[in-house]
Structure formats: C-alpha cells, structure tokens
C-alpha cells in the first residue's frame, strides 16, 4: 500500500515526493477528488499561516474524509510543520478552530529579549527523545532537523510528547505521537539522513 | 549547536557552474549536479543556487535542471534567477525548491513581492539586495541586470521588501564577491540592526573567522561560493565543507 500525500494547496509537496522516491516508498498525491482507498498512511504537509491552512482544509472535500479515516479507521498520519499545528485545538496565530485530534494548543515562540534570537526560528536544531515510538531512531545520539516556524505546539499530556527542542531558553514540543496521529514541527523532508530515517520508520512501522 | 546557517552558493551560467569576482569574469568550476551531490553528502545546512544568465537574457528558470538539483538535495534549496511571476514560483515550489530569491522582478513590479508572500508565505520568499561602493566611498544599491548603481538607498529597498513580507534578505557585496578577503561587516551590521528578518550575508568569505565576524554583527546566515569551491593559493577547484563538529567548535559560541 502507498502513502498518500495530502495536497490541499498549503505545502511544498515536491520535497516530500523527492524524499519518498529516494527511499523507495511509493506514494500517491491526494487531491480533493481522490479517494483514500489505495493508501494506508497519510502525510499532511503545510506551510503558511494557521487560518489560511484551516480555511483551505475546511473548504475542501478533505475535511470529512480526513476526520473519518484518521479518527474512525485509525489510519496513521504524519503532520509536518503547519500540518502538525493544524492537528491541535487551535493557535494564537489565528481565530479558526483546529482539527482537534490531539489535546494541544499552538502558541507564539518567544525567546527572551536578551537572548537575541530571531523569530522565526529558522535553521537546524537538535531534538531530545522523550518516548519510545518506532519513528525516531534512539540509537543516534545527536539528531538535528531543519526548522522554520514562529509558533509552536504545547501538548497537555506529556505522554504525547515525542521530541523536545530548545530554542534558547524556550523548550518546546517539536514532535508528538498519540496512537496513529504523529506531528513534527521540523521538516524531515529537508533534514538529510535524520529525516530520511524518520520517513523510513513511518513507512515501515505503523499500521492502521 | 549553531543556530546560524552556513550556505554554499552556486552560480549557474550556460548550465555549468561558475564563480565570479566582483560580479564579473565568470570562471567555469564544474558540473552543477556533481557539486550538489557532494554538498548533499557533506550535509550542508542549506544550498543557494543562482542562475546569473536568466534575468540578463530574459529567460525563465531552467526547470528541468532545477528539478534535477532538487531531487539530489535533502536540505533546503533556494533558487534565484529569471523569476518574474507567481506561476513560475509555483512551478519551482512544485519541483521541490523551498525558497525563491527575487531581485530584478521587484524593480519592475513592486506588487510581485506581496503577491508571492500572500500565495506562498514569507518563509519561502527571499529578496536579494546587491550593494556596491561608489566613487565617493558610499555603499549604494546595484542592479545586477542593468549593471549599474541605483538611486534608491539600499536599506530603503531592503526595508520596502521586508514591508512587503519577505522572510529573508540576501545581502550581497559586489566589491567583496570572489575576493575571499573578508565580508562587508559595516553593511551587514546596518542591515541586521535595521531589519527584523534574518539576514543572509554573502561576499568575501575566505575563512571560518570571516563567517564568525559576520555572525557576531548579527547575520543569521552566511553564504559563500569561492570558500567552498576553491582550495589552496592557486585556487584549484575542490569542493569542501567543514565537518559539523568543527563548525560547532569554531562557531558555536557566538
């Protein structure tokens, strides 16, 4: 079975296609009219503002279908960057309700003034593994990923937190996993072998 | 850990890789695909590819070549050269480019930046600001395509671009380009203290300490060409990129 890449018009799917081709995982681009019958897993990419992402999602025929396959059929789904944030209840960045698949909110990234750190947080950063998940290779000591974001996710339940990252004195939840729902703030498709490992694990380890 | 980024920049001309000095005398340095493969293997932070012919010859981006780059590139890829519309930008993002770099088109169509930002988000749009020292010793804005100095103060041009929503400013010094004698720290400092977005400084890097100096005055990223493609006193072509551990050691504490 293939991995479905959701193309809602809010993300750069080119890089994800390139990455999946590189690791030999077959995929299908899912557009509004596509059925989900030929895929067993989903990727929800996204960049841009929270409300523009939710608006596109709400206005698309995806909304109902997505809720059904993710919540009722437990299809594994990986949200990337804004895709991760959309899975929460909502964001300080916008007014619209999020998908609400995970007990979490999105808040502004605000490092202390004296730290002189720019927002957006743009560049490479390390992650700290918080739980055993089957998606992060815990044998690798220093894993770095590429980030571009001005807001970050805060999970209610620490048991959902998969990875943590420091930006100056700010510690934020850089990835979560709750049953079949996985989200990462960074861009694994642009994170060299570290991201490659993540996609390989997502392709190999999760079943509905 | 280094929060700042070090970005090899590759110049394309006639499908080959070249390196200029003071924006002139492009010297052929090799096959771009090969270079990109090497930089990918070395796990560089990001990659910047600029087609220096496209805008001058009024040609659109060479999509098939860029697509080949993107498929070999598992770090963020920024591309500039010949982009003048949202449609072209969209095509570039679809083939796997993360950021597009715009200069010439801003001079012609001041609305383009706003349209691009609205459609694709700030994080993917970079404004390129080229600067040069004039006869009186002042730093002024330079048009790459027209090869002349412009009246609008360079900082004002950069501020206008930031106001239009660009996510980064690429600040390139014509005087320093290809010299490997150090960067234009004064201008970098001016840009960093006046502009809110990350500044990517380019031009003049000859050593890691040059990069360190630019970081110290506030650059979020430094891009370099010659430093990564030339080696030794005779400037033999050899692509290199320091090990991450070495970079952390030299540049980590800024």
Features:
heterodimer; A: 208 residues; alpha/beta; eight-stranded mixed β-sheet; two-stranded antiparallel sheet; 5 helices; 24% helix; globular; B: 254 residues; eight-stranded parallel β-barrel; two-stranded antiparallel ribbon; 10 helices; 14 strands
Shape of chain B: globular
The low-confidence runs of chain A, each spanning 5 or more residues with pLDDT under 50, are none
Oligomer: heterodimer
User: In whole angstroms, how far apart are the ends of chain B?
Assistant: 10 Å
Largest interface: A-B, 31 and 31 residues
Major β-sheet annotation of chain A:
8 strands, mixed
User: Helix- and strand-based class of chain B?
Assistant: alpha/beta
Beta content of chain A? 25-35%
Nearest-integer average pLDDT of chain A? 93
Strand order of the largest sheet of chain B: 1-4-5-6-7-10-11-12
DSSP E strands of chain B, number: 14
> How many helices of chain A in DSSP terms?
5
Distance between the termini of chain A: 12 Å
Strand percentage of chain B lies at 25-35%
Low-confidence stretches of chain B: none
Shape of chain A: globular
Radius of gyration of chain A: 16 Å
